[in-house]
Amino acid sequence: MEGGESSSTDKAAEEAPKRGRGRPRKEKTEEPDDAEPKPKRPRGRPKGTFKKPRPTEEKPKGSRGRPRKDAESPKKTEKKS
Description:
This protein has 81 residues and is mostly helical. It contains one helix and no strands. 0% of the residues are buried.
């Protein structure tokens, strides 16, 4: 009966030990010491301020937003019944 137990322990020794759930860790490749590191690749959308021209100082041409109500603007008249 001991022979069966030893074969199960041999299987465990052959397989890599599991660390946990998820993707296994990437095996590190050996690089020579004189190799220069690669520049990192940018990911995602760039912010857009890299080649953006600077705005010049200008005064606003008009007011922004919804115009205010003036006395000149037409108003609804009350209906007389």
